[in-house]
Design goal:
The structure holds 2 protein chains of 2 kinds. Chain A is of the alpha/beta class. Chain A is 24% helix and 25% strand. Chain B is an alpha+beta fold. Classes of the chains: A alpha/beta, B alpha+beta.
């Protein structure tokens, strides 16, 4: 059974949803505090959504220097799986574990609504139960979600197949790009597909009571990845 | 010695600055039609203990590189007050 650590920062607010979604696919899931220095044998780390440190300075800018982030960096370097959701994605970018940055939404408004997404990469630790090119509907809820990177970085990401999710429509289209992200990017990963950052919230669409279970498949993918990885280690 | 350091963090040139656009639009609506190319950034002031003005500036630049600015989306300007 995979061990899943959900990191709580002061201001995290999707931590319990993430924990429940991980438990629903049979994980032994537990919280670790941002001041902790040990992930307690985690196979997977989830950096949940919220407003860590009040989003002071820039979203994720202060959280990335939390003691636990050193352990998360080591875990990632050793091939462990990490997903950053929304604020977690912002933290991964600030920490340099993923390229680019999340800037203020182009429309300046906080956007909280479902968006349509296209799955672009399906061999990652969190999307291996999805089908390339398929459409998903997941909620977003963010004020700083505009993915920005230099042109060279964007070209590299595309060439290395590191765009995981894209908004299904452009800015201004119904259900489309809600924030003005470069190239409609909603999520990216490291080259190995073990570190993934996405703006949409799969943990908010992981139970039938939420109206959609599209998000559950990210957690099913996580369990499948962990099962294979743990079997390989034994 | 202690130096008063002023850091200005601005959106990188060429990067969409929706706040600047909104402020420019509002200024135009108020009749300030001469205002153009508005950019909105952030000002940070701090005291830095250092042996010299140059050292204070160098340390402030390190602070910017590490925390105060994100080089992907922001540029910064450091000014150190005399005395």
């Amino acid at each position: 059974m995979q061990r899943v650590a959900v990191v709580r920062f002061p201001g995290s607010n999707c931590d319990l949803d993430a924990l429940r979604a991980a438990e629903r696919v049979g994980s032994e899931a537990y919280f670790v505090w941002h001041r902790d220095t040990d992930l307690r044998g985690a196979d997977v780390v989830i950096l949940p959504g919220g407003f860590s440190y009040g989003d002071y300075l820039r979203a994720g800018a202060i959280a990335r220097f939390s003691p636990i982030m050193q352990a998360v960096g080591r875990h990632a370097a050793e091939g462990g799986a990490v997903i950053g959701i929304c604020n977690g994605f912002q933290i991964l970018c600030e920490a340099g574990l993923l390229p680019g940055a999340l800037a203020r939404n182009a429309g300046l408004r906080f956007v909280s609504r479902p968006v349509d997404l296209i799955v672009e990469r399906t061999d990652t630790a969190f999307t291996n139960r999805l089908v390339r090119g398929e459409r998903l509907r997941l909620p977003v809820a963010h004020g700083e979600g505009r993915y920005v990177a230099g042109r060279r970085t964007l070209d590299e990401l595309e060439a290395e197949d590191r765009v995981v999710l894209r908004y299904a429509g452009g800015s201004g289209e119904p259900g489309g790009n809600p924030n003005g992200s470069d190239r409609n990017i909603a999520g990216v990963c490291n080259p190995a597909g073990t570190v993934v950052g996405i703006m949409p919230h799969p943990e908010r669409a992981a139970d039938p009571v939420n109206g959609s279970t599209d998000g559950a498949r990210f957690f099913e993918s996580m369990a499948a990845w962990a099962g294979r990885t743990l079997a390989g280690r034994r | 010695m202690t130096f008063r350091v002023h850091v200005r963090v601005m959106p990188r040139a060429g990067l969409l600055d929706p706040q600047g656009q909104a402020v420019e639009h509002a200024l135009g609506a108020l009749g300030f039609r001469e205002a153009a190319a508005v950019r909105v950034g952030r000002a940070i002031e701090l005291d830095v203990a250092a042996a010299s003005r140059d050292e204070a500036e160098a340390r402030a630049r390190q602070m910017c590189d590490k925390l105060l600015a994100n080089p992907v989306i922001e540029d910064y300007i450091v000014d150190v007050e005399e005395d």
